[in-house]
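Task 17 of the worksheet. Students: predict the tertiary structure of the chain below and write it out as structure tokens. Keep your answer in the requested format; marks are given for formatting as well as content.
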Amino acid sequence: MSRSPGTVNNVHLGSQGRISSVSVYSDRAEVIKMYKLAVAAGQNKVVVDGLPYTLDETSVRVEGRGDATIHDVTVSLPTRAPPPTSTSPELLLFSDQREETTTALSRYRKALTRLDRYLEARTEHYNNGGAPHAIPDDVGSLMENYLEASGKYDDKVLELKRELRKIDKAINEEHAASQKFVGSGAPCPYQATIGIYAEEGTEVEIVLKYVVIGAASWKPLYEIRANTESKDSPIEIIYKAAIRQDSGEDWTDVPITLETAKPTFGLSLPALPTWNISVYTPPPPPPPAPPAPSSRYAHLTPQPTGYSSIMQQIQETRDRRAGQLGEEETEREGVVHARTYQRSRAPPPPPARRSVPMQITEASVSSSGLGVNATFKVPGLITIPSDGAAHSVTVAKLKPKGRLSWLAMPQVGNGVHLTASITNSSEYTLLAGPSTVYLDESFVAKSKIPLTGPQGGFTCALGLDPSIRLTIPPPTSSTSTSGILTKTTCTSYAQRISVHNTKNAKVENLRVLARIPVSLDEKINVRLVEPSLPAPPASTPPQVSSGTPTSPPSVKESSEKSSIQAVGVAEGVTAWWYSGNGSEMNGVEDGAGGQEGKIQWNCAIDAKAKVDMTLRWDVGAGKDIAIVGL
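Model answer:
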């Protein structure tokens, strides 16, 4: 049948579209829906209902596939139907039943109260009128009648209470059901109206894209699994994402893409204003106010002009003196000095105004290392209901390059810390996020992974390793005095350190850090005796020397960087000066570390083996010098 010109074909799709893909950002998500429909020749008005109320109206885009043309797209909220009355016949019936039950319950409670009063009155009558300890003849029948009546009323009260609870429950359910339609404040879903023109009747496919704001997000999560028995790949990272969404529609069996881009709105290029400077010009001093003359000596008061002239001369003299005293300090601070009258009253010069350009946060590196943002495609089809709960999905299982190492600081504690130096050898960008750490399938710690691009690295603490035991006996010391005219006191200290590997495998990369005191005064000399390390480069503040005397370095030697000079202490144990606080995996392991008085041993301990190390140092000073800090 032919259609008359100007007739519009109305097509109502409802909310039956299929979600084909979802891209989740940190605070929003882009949803793509597919619709298939048949359009007639001429104008067609396609109405799509049930779009989530969290969508951004300006983000709606429509694309089409087929022999037709999209003319216009309109997004609006449908008109809400007038709400029905909040009072239903069922609710009125339940209210009447509740009133009747409450009245009956009150009546039976009053009956029980009056029955108790009647029994008390009869008991009082017997006590007042009868002989002491006499039992009336009718007391038995009285008590039986009381128990029978009170039991009947008690049962009725319990029955009415149960009935009242049932009525209250029914009333609450009826209220909840009516609130779904009456003034609940629930937002209406959006509606999209699409105008399509076709030369002839055909089937088309509509792709509807929109963004939901504030109703979807994702955050990275990690599981770091370390295996101390594995030599090739001891570290495994499970890359996860916690996805939340309460947009109002479920994402069922949908391919999900995780995006790290953060949209910005209203951001323009910063402007760099001119930075002007000038000589400070103080404000003119206020004229001095003459003191109020008394009436008795008013004729002796000098004229204002003469008094002002005298005060000006006095003030100029004060200014010259103040200028001479403050000239040196003023020149040192680089401040333009302006001599004025009433210097003490003049305000200080204002600070120079300096415009700071607007800072823009740098975006993260893409997973491929070529762009500015990372994009992760979650493998498989994912279902995320609209419940606002965090749903964890696995992005990838990574086998990064990792090296396990152990760190002990006997002078800080007797625990041995296990750390992992990890290199991101994958194509994924590791975003900053929390991680759970498992050591040999046992949960040991919670940590955080910093933002790490491909081929980047970070250090992860794996907690204490109880299978490596550290024994630290108390240090020993002995004091001797030498010198004839000038007495010098030398105190020798010794600290033994023992490390026991109770594992069934060899432990490598075990570091032991210790320290000797550093002198801040040239009158105190600290000398390292054992291990016998080369003398560190000369440094004025710290006074530390090694057991082997050395000549002062030449200018050429001082300008060159010291190379790593390790000394073998025992089989599998080397020692050298260390620079750092111990938290770094790779400190500055060169001679400069001796200026801080820190020594490092690197150990490789066989299974079930033990290694002993000794730290000896001398502290020398004048006999009458009191040393603080030992």
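Marker's comment: The helical segments are 89-129, 139-179, 304-333, 555-559. The chain has four helices and 30 strands.
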